[in-house]
Amino acid sequence: MGDLFRDLREDRKERRRTLGVNCPRCADVRPKAHPSILLPGQRCRVDGYRDPRPDDRQALTGEPG
Ligand SMILES: [Zn+2]
User: Fold this and answer.
1) In a 3-state reduction of DSSP, which class is residue 55?
2) Does residue 9 lie within any of the structural domains?
3) What share of the chain is helix, strand, coil (3-state, %, to 5)?
4) 27 CA distance to ligand 1 centroid (A)?
5) Domain that holds residue 64
6) How many domains does the chain have?
7) How far is the centre of ligand 1, averaged over its atoms, from the C-alpha of 64 (Å)?
8) 50 contacts: CB under 8 Å, gap ≥ 6
9) Which of 19, 40, 51, 62 is the most buried (most CB within 10 A)?
């Protein structure tokens, strides 16, 4: 259980590192703050911008979340 949770966290960190992009709207809305990091299909919590890329995670596994 603990190992699985850790693996999931590591996987998320890896995805964030490889697929994450700076939210382009954050640069306009809050130019002095750090922009949100968005994964494919993720929505920015600050300004509502949604990354237009398809969610590769769902394509790979067929399971949401
Ligand atoms: Zn944003």
Assistant:
1) coil
2) no
3) 45, 10, 45
4) 7
5) 20-65
6) 1
7) 23
8) 41, 42, 43, 44
9) 51
Residue 63 falls within a domain, yes or no? Answer: yes
Return all residues near 19 (Cβ < 8 A) that are at least 6 apart: 39, 40, 56
Q: How far, in Å, is the centroid of ligand 1 from the Cα of 9? A: 23
The three-state (H, E, C) secondary structure of 20-31, written as one string? CEECHHHHHHCC
pLDDT tens, the chain, 65 aa long: 567 888 888 888 888 888 999 999 999 999 999 999 999 999 999 999 999 998 766 555 555 55
Ligand 1 centroid distance, CA of 19 (Å): 16
Answer yes or no: is 1 within a domain: no
Question: In whole angstroms, what is the distance from residue 17 CA to residue 58 CA?
Answer: 18
Is residue 57 in some structural domain? yes
